[in-house]
Amino acid sequence: MLHPRLAPAVAAGAIVAFLLCGCTTPDPAPVPSSAAPTAAPVFASDEEALAAGKNSYAEFQRISDAILADGGEDPERLLSVATRGVYEHELSGFNQIAADGNHGSGSSKFDSVSLQSANLMGGPQSLVLYLCEDIGGTDIRNSSEKSVVRADRVERWPLQITFDYLDGKLLLSDESDWTGDNFC
């Protein structure tokens, strides 16, 4: 309870505070300087994104096959179609081919491609595909042109692949074996 002599002062202070609050003008609402930016999609449709993913993976396979055919030489060519992480993962295989004096022959293929997701409008942009990898038309040969591939190797399997959209192109950023039902 307030002392009786302080009550008029507190009441007067409260009235002044109330009046001051009511007399100030609120900050003006921010005025947008221009229209909000709108992000245009990278591809016009899922079909266009799927086609771009197929083309990008075909180019990844073509370059990988070429590096193998060259005995693992100049593996940095892969950086034109893949992220540094994928390059570093593949590098150990290319280095082993070179160390063993082997080289690749033939071409790898893929089919049964489907779009899993496409996040191509702002933020980290990526494209994820399912596909069946097929290396049945490839071989690894030694300097005597004798195959060094195991007879029981798996030649066809399902993959989930991810591309990052960087600097205006799709770069392979992950290539993982699909662990669900084999759709190949």
Structural write-up:
The chain has 184 residues and is α+β, with helices and mostly antiparallel strands. It has a single domain (43-177), classed as Nuclear Transport Factor 2, Chain: A (Roll), CATH 3.10.450. It is built from three helices and six strands. Residues 1-38 have low confidence and may be disordered.
Compute the separation of the termini in Å: 83 Å
What's the CATH architecture?
A: Roll
> Would you tell me the structural class of the helices and strands?
alpha+beta
CATH fold-level label: Nuclear Transport Factor 2, Chain: A
Listing every helix as H and every strand as E from the N terminus to the C terminus, the arrangement reads HHHEEEEEE
Overall 3D shape: globular
> Uncertain spans, ≥5 residues at pLDDT below 50?
1-38
Report the count of strand segments.
6
Query: Can you give the helix content as a percent range?
Result: 25-40%
Tally of distinct domains:
1
